[in-house]
User: Fold these one by one.
Assistant:
Number 1:
Amino acid sequence: MPPAEAVPMFSPELRRGLGRLLALVLLLTVGLVATPAEAATNLVRNPGLETLGPNGFPTCWERSGLGDHSYTFGLTADARSGRRAMRIAITELTSGDRKAMMAENAQCAPRVTVGNQYDLSVWYKSTTAANAITLFRHDTRDGWQYWLDSATLAATSTWQRKVVRTPPIPANTDQITWGVSLYSTGTLITDDYSMVDANAPMPTPSGCTDAAGCTRGKWQVMPYESTVRGIHAVMLHNGKVLLVAGSGNDPSAFEAGTFKTAVYDPATGAFTDVATPVDLFCAGHVQLRDGRVLVMGGNKDYPTADGTVGYKGLKDSYIFDPATNRYSRTNDMLAGHWYPSATMLGNGDILSLGGLGEDSTGTTTTDYFSSAQQRWLPMNEVKQTWAWWGLYPAMVLMQDGRLFYTGSHTFGVALPGSGASIYDVGKGTITDVPGLQRKDERDQSMSVLLPPAQAQRVLTVGGGNGDAGATAHRLTDVIDLKAASPRYVPGPPLPQGTLTGGVPQSGDQGKMYVSLVLLPDGTVFETGGALHNRADPVFEASIFDPQTNQFRQDMATDPVPRTYHSSAFLLPDGRVMAVGDNPGNGSFDNRISVYSPPYLFKGARPAIQTLARTNWAYGSTQRITVDSAVTRASLIRPAAVTHSSDPNQRFVELPMTVSGNTIDLNVTTNPNLAPPGWYMLFVHNANGVPSIAKWVKLG
Amino acid sequence: MSRWFRAVAGWVRASGRRGQLAVAAGLVLLVLVVGVVGVLVAGGGDSDILWGGGTSATPADEPAEESGGESEPGQRPDAPDPTGPVGAPPPYVQPFAQQPGAKPRGAGPSPTAGVEIAEGTDGCDHAYGDRDVCVPWKFPDGVTDRCGWLRERGFEPLKITGGRDRHGLDRNDDGTACGAGD
């Protein structure tokens, strides 16, 4: 029997079509399954803690922790998956924490790409809310170092998952490790860690239509002038700006008892006069936790011409209320303060130091305003050091509640010691910090806590010495307050600009009375200043990038000279406003300039569409929605600036938990990182283009 | 088998072009379903994450446990769980900048007076002009023509109000610094 003739099952056309269809299916399978799997590769080694090393501890993990406490640390069979989970129990605690960390070595620590973001995930159970996801980063130059605590884990008796996205990986970082820190008594069990590349959204097209704006930013001088001399500027949480002049360095106004304050509305250009009770010229000021402004000290009298008596400081204090545009008097301080510092502590209290007293001598009295009691405390309730801090000493609150005196101040000759120090308010002790260059030429320098506040780094820029007639220098110094023994190290030299007539700066010429403004993209705008005390404006502006520790030079310069009695500060719309200039001939420039940084010329701005709450608690998670992808969120404390001094200025990182355009913001537990009060909430996209701020009240 | 195949092939041929397309689509759907189920089964786990970095669990000895501080030796993980604050988390503060070896200064003696401040602390010699005017207490290095330096910076002739002329700006001694005859 001949074999049956082979009969094709499908026609040739159908076979070809079927083949194409199968190829398509294969491609779709690769596209839909394989690619996401690749993007979601877990970078954590031994994520389920199932593989043990010779010491019986999970491979690629290590025990970590510091401090004075009693604890047990090991594995438990109470696992979410597999056979093992990590269990840490602290039975008594005086200080410190305990945590399991990914091992800090080349094989185990997840490798990362600079600029990328990673979603960290961990399953956990805990009998306490005192758990934090702690990150370390490996700096290719400086080795392993603490990065930040990115999220808090609430207490739970059932397995819960916490996911948080890292900020963009900083420059010079090739690996990170992380774990969950237990920092109170309690029991923490963790399992099934993961870390996946979040596939940071591609930068949106720049949309740059203005080449100069994109690279240098642009200034606009308002077509009107301030109605008062803007010597003191405070950003209010209603979006308006408090401009305080007092007598405005005008002795005739002082003699006439003409003291001025105005509230300026940047949206409308309107000024509202505010009745000013005393000469608040040269006062100190800071926003209280409720958004009112505490003003302390001021000018009791100008110096005599024969030089026998100098400026005298008031001990009066007032609170300005943005809701009523009125000052109300508080009790007096213990001593007069002309040029005092004003720093908010983590509990909302205010510390004021330095300046000149009622008899024009230097004030060594520490004044302390109690937020709870709404009054300056009497002498027997304030721990005194009787130290002389100079005038407008820049006191930056550290993450543990101590104060860092940056060495930046206004006027005066050198203070003893190294020029910078850490002041423990509770203990009443002061410890010098070394490294500040030319410590005796930091008159009218400026310091700022670099973004983010969690990094605990301070930048001090420029300065001179008015007493000695010194020419301002271009030195900068950076200090990392995370170090065991912090010390300033030299930063990059301040870029040089031009003097009057377009003469370029030369040699080591720099600036005094310089302004530093934190921007919502995590950089620092540097602008204004002069070569000498009240003389020789320098036209130069730059942007300092804390990630690279470099200045981006040649930003557009304010066409208005901004020397003595000038200030610059951030507006909620992401622009920078500059006011004031009071050169030695006694004139005053009342023009207002507004700078639009390059990020405002780089395409559409992301928008915060909804904000679940405006009253935020420490350690909470706050939900927002945005209209487009963003890479970072932050809280920026509104300015309260004068004389190149705004020690409360800070940018607080808000690590994000991202689900599409819904974002949960993880708020720090530590009020010392973000003292209570109103903040500007910003987000920005991968191009660094920020949103307009929403106002939130923390604490 | 071959008989079953021939029967199906014959049925497909008889079905016409529309029927053949339907059969082909059914086969593709079957491949898709089998493929997806296969991926899900083979992928295992509880999520869409592939554990690229992990290794399989292997039996091991009872893991070592570490204890520290003042805890009782031998305390087991299955002891009653200690608890902590469960509401708002307490502040998490890092032990930075403890400055080991550095010697802090304590409070000084209570002063009987404030610190004496030398004249010119604001960098100005207020003996010239009104007190909002700031003739430098010390001119910058290299300035030889002081009145010229002041004029270039917008200073008008200044009355000497403080009864002295430290900088010698009133050469003709008419009571006005940097005036017409100076």
Number 2:
Amino acid sequence: MSAGFLSRTGLGLGLLLGREPVKPDPDGMTTDARDMHAFKRTPQERARRKAEIMAERAAGVVSHRWRWRRWASIVGFNGLFVLSYWLDLQLVEGALTASRVLGFHFADLNSSLQLMLAHKHAVNDFVIGASTVFTLYLLAGGRTFCSWICPYHLLSELAEMLHLRLAERRLVKDHELDRRLRTVMFVVFAVLAFASGYTLFETISPVGILSRALVYGTVIALVWIAFLLLVEVFYSRRLWCRYLCPIGLTYGIVGTVAPVRIVHHLDSCLHEGKCREVCLVPHVLEMTKLGYAAEVNTPIGPDCTRCAMCIDACPTGALTLDVKGISRPPGTAE
Amino acid sequence: MTDTITTTAPTKPDKRHSKADEARRRLLRSIAVGGLVTCAALAGLLHHRLAPGAPRLRPPGALDEDAFLASCIKCGQCVQVCPVEAVKLADLTDGIGNGVPWIDPRAQACDFSCDATQCILACPTGALSHLIDKKEQVRMGVAKVVEPDACLARQGRGYKGPARGGGFRGVLRYPEIDRWRAKPVAGHPYDLALCDLCVRQCPIEGAIALEPVSSDPGDRRRTPKVTAACVGCGVCEMMCPADPVAIRIEVTPTGREPGGTPA
């Protein structure tokens, strides 16, 4: 475990909990990274980058490959829940809060946390279910849940598209919130569950509500979902996922050191910022700004949902999905 | 976002101020939004505390109501395994009971068609207590004659036809017809000299019996008498042909846990 790994993990956790990103001190950068920044500032290199950006804009190629894969994943997973019940396939029984996958117990980590705090007791099946899911996301990267499985994420993405279109015409404006709010909400709901003895968050959890509405047809609760989406379209871009959802934070913490992550490669980055425009959590992509990367190949922190929109958006392939130990790019620091 | 300055263009505030202003507004917005979401979650609790509706009949094995609400993970696996589809999930209108399973026995009672406790086996959290493995151990509630005047047996009357009419969609296991599968109640007409449906179809032995109303041997009238063996499954409530229903389950919010004494 290198010093780079520790400081990167620490910074990543800080960002996850809501700290503002800071420009790294050049002294903390690797020599290679420092050299590359210096090289990128030479006039020839600036001119070359500019020409490349112009050429790329003229070509105007936009890829949505990862988005389609991800949407297929969300629809597929949630579809399995629905079909398992309605066609009695018995593959994935239950809802996203807890289920049995081919007979194995699975339990959502945030629901589990709420339940244990409220009930103050846990049975074996439940511990097994939560541990299975814990291990899964420890490896896959916690917030992978958000962008690859959570049904609210998909609806929220559609709301975001509408929001951006309206914002372009100056009909709506994004009201940003303080990102520390999510950490506060996590604590508030944990304390409420413990103090009241009820899983209060579950009452308004969009994941549970949507999952149950899909499988069991409990549609009245969709009023809450509709309200959240309206707020996201007209008031604040991706309000729930960015600033409120304790589920995202729970999974983020679990996946802090996951081997599956997106990695930024400084050498091919043109620092256009297209990745940050599409990103749900743009503070994790600070290293894509010119002069910010502390390493030549920087893994992106735990708040990243591995949605891979940045990979789609990046015209030069400077961002890649990477599995530590399997697809190590040349020159990685560890 | 750079937008924040341009959109307030008419008043042309100086840049430094608007930046500090935006930071302050952002904090206030965050507090307001966080407060609202907290209130939304608390509304469920308030609804539960201040305006509690009639307690819901919970599936077999459910812990005492407060513990049940806390320990249920709202996944509906109990719904999926119930062969008679008696278990359904509550919606947001139930406040903190959102997503928690319940049974409407008048529409479809739990008849233990599954030979008891499939829902308990399916429950991943033990909200339906894993300590129960026989239907006789269940304590969901207790049957009570709530409309004595409506009861046919108490009037000495018989009953002819399907228990709840031809359009009723509930099902019941008739062991003498099919040991394994529940059949539509509507397809099973009766011809009874004295209505005893609540006793005849009760899945628990010795839970309910008809007793004479008077000591007069010529008096045909009988009254249903519920014993301590009653588990509150609600089959009597489903099968009662009277309208309004003469017998109902009174939900026991406490004392449901195994080993506990029935309320």
